[in-house]
Design goal:
about 140 residues, mainly alpha, 2 domains, globular
């Protein structure tokens, strides 16, 4: 398991470690200035890393995801696997199968992510807290 970096990068342990390192790798002077930001950056990094494992568990191939490695090496798939697994190798990627994978990722990953980002931006724009201090009178 530890020889396969893809397996390690899908774990919750890896996500927590990377999130913590995001905070602690900032220079101390920057951490003092951005005390609320460093927690937010660590949290966002953890969510991004953990979502990678969840997306891998939604693919229709591979060995599954060892979410709890190195404590438990059991591999999991989610019950619903709509994302086509990507072919290994650059030559195989530029085939009809690779094209099907790209369409699958656009539909199940990029389109929902884009909607989430646009929705968050619209909500932020309408939020009274976001407009606080912007008195136009």
């Amino acid at each position: 398991m530890l020889s396969d970096f893809g397996s390690v990068s899908d774990t919750m342990t890896f996500g927590g470690t990377v999130g913590s390192l995001t905070r602690w790798c900032l220079p101390l002077s920057l951490r003092l200035q951005l005390s609320s930001w460093d927690f937010t950056a660590a949290y966002r990094t953890l969510v991004a890393t953990a979502s990678h494992g969840l997306l891998d568990a939604m693919t229709d191939g591979g060995l599954g995801v060892a979410f709890f490695a190195p404590f438990d090496n059991h591999r999991y798939f989610l019950p619903w696997t709509p994302i086509r697994v990507s072919p290994i190798g650059i030559g195989r990627f530029f085939t009809s199968r690779g094209s099907a994978v790209l369409r699958s990722e656009l539909l199940w990953i990029w389109f929902p992510a884009g909607l989430l980002i646009v929705s968050a931006l619209l909500l932020r724009r309408r939020s009274p807290a976001a407009n606080a201090g912007l008195d136009t009178h």
